[in-house]
Amino acid sequence: MVRKILVAKPLAAIATMFLLPCGRLCAEKKSPNILFILADDLGWKDLSYTGSRFYESPYIDSLAREGIVFTDAYAAAPVSSPSRVSLQTGRYPVRSGITDVLLGRYYYQKALIDSVCPVLPPEYPLDLPLSEMTIAEKIKESGYNTYFVGKWHCSEDSLLYPQHRGYDVNFAGSNRGDVGKNGYFAPYNIPGVHALDKDEYLTDRIGDEAIKMIENNGDSPFFMFLSFYQVHVPLVAKQEKIRYFKEKARRLGLDTLECYNDTPDWWSKQPFDNPYRDRLLQSDPVYAAMISIMDENIGKILSVLKEKGLYDNTVIIFTSDNGGLATSEKSPTSNLPLKGGKGHLYEGGIRVPLVVKMNEPYRLSGYSDAVVSGIDFFPTILDIAGEEPLHNLDGQSFLPVLKDLSYKMPERPVFWHFPHYPNHGGRPAGAVRYGDYKLIEFFDTGEKELYFLKTDIGEQKNLISAEKQIADKLSRLLEKWQQECAVKMPVKNQKYKCKEN
Fold this sequence. Notes:
Blueprint: H1 2-8, H2 11-19, H3 22-29, E1 33-39, H4 58-66, E2 68-70, E3 73-74, H5 80-89, H6 93-96, H7 105-108, H8 110-116, E4 119-120, H9 135-139, E5 145-150, E6 169-171, H10 202-215, E7 222-227, H11 239-252, E8 260-261, E9 278-279, H12 285-307, E10 314-320, H13 347-350, E11 351-352, E12 354-357, E13 366-368, H14 377-384, H15 399-403, E14 414-418, E15 429-434, E16 437-442, E17 448-452, H16 468-484, E18 491-492
Parallel strand pairs: 1-7, 1-10, 2-13, 5-6, 5-7
Antiparallel strand pairs: 2-12, 3-11, 4-18, 8-9, 10-12, 14-15, 15-16, 16-17
């Protein structure tokens, strides 16, 4: 690409360029480094800058002050694997066929689902197909060194781990969706990861490995996908941190308040007898400690970037793979005012925090209500690197917003397809957001719900009857997209018998 640009310039301009000091020429042509930081199961309200009174995230908050905060950012799926596949490919999860976690609930609770559920989920592949190009494979063509650190969860086959999908180096990326029975302390249950110290904490090690890669990178620009296992269960943290947040909860009086709603309105349609419940407030000291530890490791990486003079020329993106875990598995966090949590297509399951700190000279700070989805990072990163987008991407670049906060993104529908029963209380469903309206279609009953998010972010007022024309329009959009993508739908369970009222 550089040779083509030089040939196109007049000879006089070329001669002038060679007279410039080397440092200035290199600075003008230096591609920005790109650091993509992904948290696991971190909710939209789980950070200080998003309004949490209990959790503390000073280093992520510093990125929010220096960068652009997106208030309407979404994961492409309400659970890990399909969301991560979308981040790697810039395409909806249905394109690869991976629509549930690897391995999903149906693989280990098939008998239960077959016995109580009105519909049965479709099968899906367990590996990101080789036909799907990853962001790392593409950006290498622009001369980037590529690094993967942390949770992968896009393939069961070890021959399709990050080092075989375009990443020059992989640390801790495997088929693991969580840290396993030993938790975050050594010894680990992650293939190829061996502790350097008997008291080592995995998140600290991930931070240290990321720093080593940055320090040894050389002169080429780097793209790093830094994917923390934090704050996925099990809830395990350092004792001194836990003690600090226990005292904070006591000081704020949070330890005396009711934590849960044991009868959320969405529970009545659940086929399972699980005691699902919504968490009402953020007060779990272990969960808070885990956020703090992740934040501190982000802080030490930012410090190294600054020490090495790389910070100003590094684009930093921070987000989460899905909404916070608020409805199951001890429900450690609260997503209020959002409804539901991980595993749901309500806002609590798919709306996520997003901060982007740009490189010089595009350093803007402020807020944007542009609707951004997980499908949009691939084309945006290519745009930042100066590459043309691939023709088959579903996402669109939001770089214009990063350069000009007044820029209005073209309005478009954003879709979700989740035909599964997760273990978080969610149900098989599809959804579409278009403008400020959002429609959800539940596949087990055929019911639809319509919400106007601008005034009802908590999805409390179902407008499906009151706004019939809008509901019909969104239904047609969703159906057309489902047909174009040839989505796999749940099938009727012939063994199912309706429960007696």
